Amino acid sequence: MIDYGANVNFEDETFRVPVLVSAIVLKDSSCLRLLLKAGTDVNATGPNGMTALMWAAKVNNSDWLDLLVEKKADLNARGDRLRTALRHCVMDQNQSCVEKLIELGSNVNYFDDKGSGPLVMAAEKGDIDCLRHLLQAGASVNIGGPSGWNALIHAIYSKNEECVLALIQHGADVNFVDERRGERPLTVATRLGAEKCFHVLINNGANVNLPDIRRRTALMLAPCTRDGSLLDGLLTRTADVHVADESGLTALMIAAGNGDESCVHKLIQRRADASFSRVDFLDASMRFLVEWCETRFTEEFDKSGMASLRGVSSASGLYLNGWYVRGCTSLGLACAGGHLKCVKILVEDGDARVNVDSGLTPLMLASVNGNEACVHYLVLQGAGLDARTKELIGLIALTLALLSDWEKCVKALLDAGPDQSLPASHQSIAAAFYFAV
Questions:
Q1: CA Rg, the chain, in Å?
Q2: CA atoms of 199 and 263, how far apart (whole Å)
Q3: Which SS3 state, helix, strand or coil, does residue 18 take?
Q4: Phi, then psi, of 48 in degrees rounded to 5
Q5: Which of 204-218, 320-334, 409-423 has the highest mean pLDDT?
Q6: pTM of the entire predicted model
Q7: CATH topology of domain 284-436
Q8: What 3-state class would DSSP assign to 184?
Q9: Long-range contacts for 182-186 (Cβ within 8 Å, ≥24 apart)?
């Protein structure tokens, strides 16, 4: 038909697919060669802006790549979403075509519309063979696209330690911070629990004390994974146990709040300060009670106390109706979560104080959250039953347990102090609360 004048650049009207692309998709080698010999346009694009070269890469035929490039096919043409033939090869893990396109001169340092280049895609796929080909061809390891992530971060997300090591050996910065999310390679590996990647990083110069944009170090993230090997790896490299994040939380406070007794014990052994306190802490149970009381008993509240509470809320830019526990410690967080083993470690090994001067005491936090076992233990350790909150008419632990409807905690507190009575100013609140619920 070509000999009789058939149009070698014909496109069907429905899908607008060039005849050359159709030959490649159908894997018709004879037709492909005839079309090339007849002078068909090798750079014509079909759906999604894909050229014949891109399709040859996708069907993983390196011989056809040679033929098309010989006929002046554009190696770096970009189709839909700015993807090149090399990007398609890496995405489909067509290693022979990756090698061939690199040999033919494809650009290994470009990014598509989402900031993903060939090296980033190989790292994301965990494809060590493609990644090594690209590195040997000079792919830049520290360039990040619009997403802010470079290949090293993607390799960590794929949890492929071989890719991580290969990138480091070719100059990847193990301590960089990405521009958009503010994360570092080591904090990402720790947060994901990617143990093998984590050890590759710390064995190759990652600084264990560098924080992310939220001032969190890897040590603060380790308790969330409950992977003891990560914590051990950080502690053996002198991770700072005293530093706090932007919210005022230390690694010990996070471990205590999560109920990780093993982590708490190890941090205490490293002399983490069990008495360190953060400025403000929002307790969900207290927040509910405060909001309920505010709507029904505004007159009953101490006006200066309410003004102070609102002032703290406004100054910190957080929840206006939240309750802020001033001076909350690791012990308070463990009590709020009902983590008795952590409570015992903090008191018996860490010398944590069961009574604090401001905010809610550990006993109050245990009472408002209905943690009876913690209430019993704190009472035995001498926790003050008559300690009052600094705002909201001076609530005591017994009032908080009543308002939260924790019958066992109420009984435990009454048994501990049979002579104590509910303050008169609290009785109307308690009665109305029970009537309402």
A1: 32
A2: 18
A3: strand
A4: 65, 15
A5: 204-218
A6: 0.79
A7: 1.25.40
A8: coil
A9: 182/212, 182/213, 182/214, 183/153, 183/212, 183/213, 184/210, 184/211, 184/212, 185/152, 185/153, 185/156, 186/210, 186/218
